[in-house]
Fold these 2 entries.
Entry 1:
Amino acid sequence: MMSLRQFAKHLVVLVGLTALPVLSNAGELGPVPPKAKMKASEKTECVEPVGDMRKNHMEFLLHKRDETMREGVRTKTHSLAECIDCHVTPDKKGEFARYGDDKHFCSSCHNYAAVNVDCFDCHSDLPESASSKLRTLNQKNPHHKMTEGGKK
Amino acid sequence: MSNSEQNTNEYRRKFLAQSAAVAGLAIAPGIILNQVAHAKSDSDKATSANRWGMLINTNKCASGCTDCVTACKTENAWGSVDGNTSSETHSSKEQQAQWIRKVTITDKQTGHVQSLPLMCQHCETAPCVDVCPTGASMKREDGIVQVDKHICIGCRYCMMACPYKARSFVHEKLELQKATAPRGIGTVESCNMCAHRVDKDQDPACVEACNKAEHGAMLFGDLKDANSAISRELKKHGGEQIRADLGLNTGVRYQGL
């Protein structure tokens, strides 16, 4: 038979063990995407309500992609380039996280949810200003020096 | 002059001044409307009211000048400029993308040498669009032929079908693409007449570069607009299609061939 004292001791240990994982994860439940550059307008956070964007951004992007690609509509709302421009921001040192890194806006959720996208096989994962800077840098210090038309 | 006569004259003067002002107002909106009709706003779709085309004068095209090719590379971030590349670094020369190239033709009989840029000819009945199994190879309403890389499976039938050898396949993983020119591994690509620039009422990068170099060998415009510079020039002096025998009705025409 367990004494009352022993029971109390066990109870403390049990409660402590249960609480441990919750406490250690405090404040980090789920992904933490970086802050966007600015609000879409004075009244709205993003181009659509935040909840809608979280759930349906892929639908918006898909619709816009066909409109732009096939019909030549060049409006900015729902354009991937505009999303990247506003949401992919540099850290305090001025450096950009790349797609795949937990600190990259898209990856912060996509890594957590284990969802792979192929957007960045063809589209740049950085705002145009940052891409063009890196492009010039790579041209000056190429990882492979090439002759016109390439190596043999 | 009597008093009543003076009143009548004053009345007439006022009436004339007012009618002139009204006429002025009526003309002004007409002029503005005319200008608006030519500009495409961002939300407008490309329509079949236009057909974009190019006219290349080989007599004005300087041999040795590759400004159009360089401009295309810079605009769309493909290939290497001055021996430096930021895109394909692992592909061989044969594998690397080539959206536009300079071709030199020599007449063996006379020794006459011609130099001309060759790129996608934006056919009306494009063989690449015909053969595509997924609908990725497509023609926009305004005649621009391009690849929708979202649904391209990289089978390369279109490359086989193209009589102008205008298309390339991307063999390696790329990064840092231009926002206006997405391109990536496993898809086919080619000149899209700088659709992103055309949608903003600008000339394609190659045409702009040719004009900047003061060669003026390339003319871009609307083939359906009888008053456009390209239509007037074609009507006056004509323009040839390369491989006209195929009956593809190309959007890119040449003079001096």
Entry 2:
Amino acid sequence: MSDAALKLDQAEVGRIFREESGRSVAALIRVFGDIDIAEDAVQEAFAVALRKWPGDGLPPNPGGWITTTARKRAIDRLRRESRERELLGEVVVLSPGDDDPRMSREVGSVQDDRLRLIFTCCHPALSTEAQVALTLRLLGGLSTNEVARSFLVTEPTMAQRLVRAKRKIKAARIPYRVPGDEELPDRLRPVLAVVYLLYNAGLTSSSEPDLCSEAIRLARILATLMADELEVAGLLALLLLIESRRASRLRSDGSLVLLGEQDRRRWDRALIEEGQAIVRRCLRRNQPGPYQLQAAINAVHADAATFEQTDWSQILALYDQLLAVAPTPVVALNRAIAIGEVEGPAAALALVDELGLDNYYAFHATRADLLRRLGRNSEAAAAYERAAAMAPTDAERDFLRLGGRAFR
Amino acid sequence: MAQYLLSVHTVEGEVREPMTAEEMQQSWKEIQVLNEEMKSAGAWLFTGALHEPDTATVVRMSGGKVLTTDGPFAESKEHLGGFYIIEAKDLDAALAWASKTAAAVRRPIEVRPFRVFEA
């Protein structure tokens, strides 16, 4: 195989390994019934890969190689620990041998394992923080240190969060299975929320590995494994459409570029087409949910060659639907922004002022923009200042400060 | 199988809509039905409702002597009001029973796994 001739450096081994390790961790948890054993064994397999792959080249089926190597390591370990001889008896029954036909059968079932794993990681009995950390660590294959850096906490803090979450899974017996049809809607919600949260964390953090790509990778896996769930497809479409604009979202100095001022020629057409195709497929099924509707709104934005050509009445209609299925103040705020484009800033401001989202920076930023458009400049300046004080990132804060200064 | 404690907590001084006699009757009926359901499913191990925390007495060893004092152990606003001990195959099964319990007793239910000690 020509793959064998491929020269791999350690960073590449790390990247490929990370891409593939989620499957292996998921498969080994099923076989051994223990997250720590699976994690440690896959970690050991990584050490072997770092030693072997750069010289020998990439194995033809890296995922299968990792699973096989890790399983051998885990069995060796259990064998060493004589206390667990009983468990070993079970393992031998459960795990197929290493010969190829059985291996390929195992590869066929690992898909379901990853699905099992994400439902365990995102079980509602775990805190959102724990859900996110477990998902990145176990499915994303990120190291504890990488997960810690992504969320701006120290490594010991993150390590402890992971340990605590895994202890709860074990002690409380959080099951390792895909929920049944009747539970699925409730159980899918935190899974989708975690993936969306990961993407948004990626937008505001510059740490490696890139969380936006990680979130899209997870969304793709979920969309493949749950092809019938329209909200899963909707989430993937939403992420692809937001991602298509990521490169034009920030200037080279890191400052924020508003949707209306972005260079639309820099939007990624391939991502837009993929996202819009999913949105069209969802629309045909006509069972709208929050992610599908947000994707549809982004699809309308992507259709407009210029900001002025945006079909705001269609966006407003979609926000009306979104508000019906997800009646949150944040959705109401975004709907008011659409009203501002259709009926003008005065109508929008009246709606915004009713929301009283005093602790939300986007509320003040929206008010500031509407007040500016109404020529109420000193009020606008005050609102910009309040928004800036609450902005979650430097880019957004600088942007809002700039807006505020212009009208002082 | 694992065992779980499903507990109902009372909060001192908490203002609640008082239940009418009819509502209490209805809740009581639902609890009886739930108990039967748990028993026939093989999930029920024990259940009990407790008297108010001011009926509690604490016994502790102090310098080799028994010291008996009045009152609940913890200076807390929340007290255990009643509980179930159930057997379930995993947390999801325990949470399903807890949901039914919460509906019947009209209170939040805390679910905690029992430790398992290997023989």
